[in-house]
Amino acid sequence: MNLDGFSYEQGPIRPPSEAASLLIRATRNCPWNRCAFCHCYRGSAFELRPVEEIKKDIDTVRNSADELREISWELGESGRISKVVLSHLWRNEHLYGTSVRTIAAWLYYGGESVFLQDANSIIMKTADIAAVLRYIRERLPTVTRITSYGRSKTAAKKSVEEYRVLREAGLTRIHIGLESGGDRILAFMNKGVTAADHIEGGKRIVESGISLSEYIMPGLGGSRWTEEHARETARVINAINPDFVRIRSLQVAPGTALSRFVEEKRFEMLSDDGVVKEIRLFIECLDGVKSTIVSDHILNLLEEVEGTMPADREKMCAVIDRYLALPEVDREVFRLGRRRGMFSRLDDLEDDSTRGTLRRVVDTYRENDPGGLERDLRRIMEHYI
Fold first, then answer.
1. Does residue 135 contact residue 146 with C-beta atoms inside 8 Å?
2. pTM of the model
3. Last residue of one domain, picked from the residues 325, 346, 361
4. Would you call 124 exposed, middle or buried from its count of C-beta atoms within 10 A (0-12, 13-18, 19+)?
C-alpha cells in the first residue's frame, strides 16, 4: 500500500514536553518575530491559516491513521501501531512519506496529545480556535490533550470567558515564553511585552482553568542585570502562579541581534556558574507559588534542578550548592560531560572511567589551549538551539 500522497503541513518547532504530540499547524511563524535572542522565524511572514485548511490537515491525519491500522492488520498486528509496523514503514520509505511516518510514531505513543503550531496560535479568533479544537476531538477520538504556544501580549487581550470557551472545546495547556520579568531586560531584548503583560495574560489563563507553562531564560540579563533578572522574573511568576516553570538557559544564536550585541560588547554573557547562581536566586525569591519547576533541555547545565514549590525548594538549591562546591576542574569536567551528552546528573561524576576520560580532555585544554574549552563548549551548545 502506497501512502506517499498523505501529507500535511507542519511547522519548525514544538516544546520538548510535546515530543510525543501530533503537530497541527494552526498559524505560520510568529506575529512579533523581533526578539533579539530568537532566530527561529527570521525572514518568514506570519500567516493565519484558514480554518477549513487546518481541518483538511486533520482529515489527512485521520485518513492516514485509518490506512495505517489497515497495514497493521495486514502485518498481523491487529490494528495496533507497533514496532513491527514502524519497522515496516521505515524499511519502505519510498512508499510512505514523512507525514505518514510522523503520524505512525504519534499513534505508537498512544495518539493522545496534539500541539497547535506555530509561535502564537492563540492569536486566532476564539471561535476559530474552538472550531479547530472541536474538529480535532471529533476526527481524532483518541486525543485527550491539546496544547499551544502563546505570547503574553496576546494572552492579555483575551478574556477569562474566552479561555473558558477554549478549555471547553478541548485546549488543555498553553506554553508561554515569559523569558524575563524585568522590564529593562524585556525592552533591551525587544521582546514586545512588559512584566504587566506577562502577569495579566498569565493570570487570565490560570483563572480559566487551562494549564499554564511559563518558560524562563536564565542568563538573559547578562552580567549587568543578572540579579534584577532573577528577582523580577520571580516576582512575575509569584503573581501568576503557573502550573509549570520551564527553564531554558540562554544560548546566543549566531546571526541574531543578540549575537551582534555581544560582538559590540553591549551584552556580556554569564558563565555557566553565573547562570547556575542566578537560577538559585530565582528559586530563593519564589514565594506563595505551587508551580512545578522543570529543567527539560540540554541547554540547562543542571537537569536535576526540578521540583514542585515550595516543598522541593531546599532540594533544588542543594543540587546547585553541590555543583558550586566542586573544585573548578571538576566543574569543568561536569560541564564538558553534560554538553557532550555523557552526563545528566552530578552523580555521573562518580563514573571513574568516564570522569577520567573527560579529565584528560580538560587537562589538555588547560595545558595547550587556555580558553579553548569555553570556546568549544559554546560551539557545542549552538547545535542545541
1. no
2. 0.94
3. 325
4. buried
- State the residue for C-alpha cell 579553548: 372
Check pLDDT > 90 for residue 4: no
SS3 string, the chain, reads: CCCCCCCCCCCCCCCHHHCCCEEEECEECCCCCCCCCCCCCCCCCCEECCHHHHHHHHHHHHHHHHHHHHHHHHCCCCCCCCHHHHHHHHHCCCCCCHHHHHHHHHHHCCCCEEEEECCCHHHCCHHHHHHHHHHHHHHCCCCCEEEEEECHHHHCCCCHHHHHHHHHHCEEEEEEEEECCCHHHHHHCCCCCCHHHHHHHHHHHHHHCCEEEEEECCCCCCCCCHHHHHHHHHHHHHHHCCCEEEECCCCCCCCCHHHHHHHCCCCCCCCHHHHHHHHHHHHHHCCCCCCEEECCCCCCCCCCCCEECCCCHHHHHHHHHHHHCCCHHHHHHHHHHHHCCCCCCHHHHHCHHHHHHHHHHHHHHHHHCCCHHHHHHHHHHHCCC
pLDDT tens-place string over residues 328-362: 999 999 999 999 999 999 999 999 999 999 999 99
Residue 114 has φ and ψ, to the nearest 5°, of: -130, 140
To the nearest whole number, what is the mean pLDDT of the chain? 95
Q: What angle do CA 29, 206, 22 make, to 5 degrees?
A: 40
pLDDT tens digit string along 303-320? 999 999 999 999 999 999
Give the Cα separation of 119 and 260 in Å (integer).
Answer: 24
Residue 159, domain extent: 151-325
Q: 97 in a domain, yes or no?
A: no
Answer yes or no: is 157 within a domain. Answer: yes
